[in-house]
Design a protein that fits this description.
It contains no helices and nine strands. It has strands spanning about 10-15, 20-25, 35, 50-55, 60-65, 75-80, 90, 105, 110-115. The strands form three sheets. It has a four-stranded antiparallel β-sheet with strand order 4-5-6-7, with no helix packed on it. Strands 1-2-3 form a three-stranded antiparallel β-sheet, with no helix packed on it.
């Protein structure tokens, strides 16, 4: 995901045979990367939704659901207000059904649209 200042973040996903919850940051368009978290407080996952908003200089991030351990679908919501360094869980179980591979987008005014 791209942050408002142009930095790029890579987080979570599926490794060769395991799920990840690490976070990497690039400030030069992806030519070099720095690990900013070995293990985030959110559980390892893939196929999650993620958006960056313009509500802070470093970028606020909101993460939605995905696939966790044992292929369990998730419907939790996490937020970071410092570009992915620290995280807080906003919702343990959202009212929408657990899901993976959904799309999310930031709309004007930092409203977030989730589809799928």
């Amino acid at each position: 995901v791209a942050l408002p200042g142009g930095a790029l973040l890579l987080m979570g996903g599926l490794g060769s045979d395991f799920l990840l919850n690490d976070i990497w940051k690039s400030i030069d368009g992806g030519r070099s990367w720095q690990r900013i978290a070995d293990a985030s407080p959110w559980s390892p996952r893939s196929w999650f939704g993620l958006v960056a908003t313009t509500s802070s200089v470093d970028g606020s991030l909101v993460m939605f659901g995905g696939v966790g351990a044992n292929n369990d679908l998730l419907n939790d919501v996490w937020c970071s207000h410092d570009g992915g360094i620290s995280w807080e869980q906003l919702v343990k179980e959202a009212p929408w059904a657990p899901r993976r591979g959904h799309g999310v987008a930031t709309l004007p005014g930092n409203a977030i649209l989730m589809m799928g």
